[in-house]
Amino acid sequence: MDIDNFDPHIADPSSTVNMVLKKAKTNLGKRALMKKAPKLVETEGKMCVMLHGGKSSQVLKNLITDLSVLKKGECHKMTRKNDGIRPFEGGGETSLEFFAQKADAGAFVLGTHQKKRPDCLTVGRFFDYHLFDMVELLVRNYKPMDSFGSVGNGAVLGSKPCMVFLGDRFETEPALRMAKNVLMDIFRGKPATRINLKGVDRVIICTALEEAVMFRQCVIRYKKSGTRLPKVELEEMGPSFDFVVGRHQEPPPDVKKQAYAKAKIGKKVKNVEHDSLEGKVGRIYVEKQTGLEELAMMKMKGLKRERRQAAEEREAAMKAPKKSKTDDDDGEDSD
User: Fold this and answer.
1) 239: cis peptide before it, omega within 30°?
2) Tens digits of per-residue pLDDT, 267-278?
3) Is the pTM of this model over 0.90?
């Protein structure tokens, strides 16, 4: 089902019939459901749904288009308006959760335009396809990526951005602290244990000032410095905008505890490793054993060379001429 062409007036997304997943009957379907199931350790990037509310503006349309380019491959962008989505009102998040389940998304970006809150960008996260937390960003001074020309051509599609948050307000104010966590969760990409320096080609900088927060994205240029570490230069590539934090909603304590659960780390077993090919591999240390050469080990008759050698030696001794005693006595006298 294409959720971009979904019409809430034809089928009510709040009905429980549409929210139930059918049980898989084939192995392919079972693997697909297992891939979509929540995991303690996620190995893929967080899929994001980007959509518009009942009323939107051209600024929000262009901004969401630019953000979808930054999240290309991990984003589902919807172009139609959705009148029934009001996440801060009771029951207004049902359609949003329905779209999250259809797209297997863990985050969302919603653009709404009202007289009280013009150019409002709501960002948030899901847990188990239910709304977890969200915060409003009131956009100002927006500049699209097209206005910066071809500066961003050096950035590779799908690369992990380096994110920098400057200012004490990100630690002291709960709304900004939530905005920091949500933005990092949306743009972090796939988890990685090792990163190549040349793969870090862009940086997202959020600076918290007294009146607003500046969102800037720059491309990283590596220049020769004559040393092992290159000289780094930043050049703004867009999108560029300022925002003021509006309303925010914290997750319930019980849901937050369940969402932040970590896998239990078992005790390390000595001399045991896990290999991707052989599975569990262990190493055993055995003391030096003595007396093995004295053990009577079974041998086949055909392999017993000692008997054949002994028989050949006896036969050779019988055929050899015997020396007489007179010869031995004569030899002793001559000495």
Assistant:
1) yes
2) 877 878 877 776
3) no
